[in-house]
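Morning run. Coffee first, then this:
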Amino acid sequence: MCRQGVSAIQEVLLAREPSEALAAFVAWVPVLAGDREPDAGTLALAPDARVQHFWDPDGTLAAPFKSVLALPGRVRA
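And here it is:
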């Protein structure tokens, strides 16, 4: 789900809008066994320079968006 969403940001939004005024922020949270900080942002799913990747180990950034975005229950709140 997360990887699919990041790919969509790259393919649907960033690839179609060249404006340098557009930026994307991706917060990675550990959902799958083995998820770790060094993997966040290195997955080449959004290689655009306008994307900034953040590691959110305890879900602090994800919690406020959990219900709004219908995130799965595995995301810590």
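The longest helix spans residues 2-14. Good start to the day.
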